[in-house]
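Record now logged for everyone:
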Amino acid sequence: PPHSIDREISVLGRSCLVSCSPIKNLNHEIDKIIHISVDISRRKQAEKALEESEAKYRRLTENAKDMIYRMSIPDGIYEFVSSASSVLFGYSPDEFYSNPMLIRQIVHPDYIPYFEKEWQRLIHGKIEPTYEYKVVHKNGNLRWMNQRNSLVIDDQGKPIAIEGIVTDITNRKKTEADLKESEWKFRQLVENINEV
């Protein structure tokens, strides 16, 4: 039986897909060759642009100190989690992927009612631009998170996903608490001086 040969070649700066198939006569000898050539330069350029774009996106997300994620609604399945999740929460992206709604287990017990209220609002298409909440890191430490949100809806206006960026604001919260305590101590000092 005839064998076809397919090759990608470059001709005068253009990418082409060339296919050659032999045609045999009654004596099973090659009598003719059918040659088909298709210019695939645009496709190759599009593939290269896509690869470059994906590489930029991957570098951005993998080098970010904040966790970038996408979660489907209403099932709570993580579709994307950046590697920063390991630092912020102590859980790898794979742990988020394999455990839908892992965030519910990570949220500090004091914030479960807040989480449940916001989840109900979210699945009905209502979302706050930011959330602030306390979590329990995998190592047991308490941390504060700030989450910036974007709701993704389908053509019918139904929410299908939430995309967000999560930042650890533990140091900021500690600084705020230290400042409040310092202000309180200063007020006490001033009040005691005025009484003397």
Notes: The radius of gyration is 30 Å.
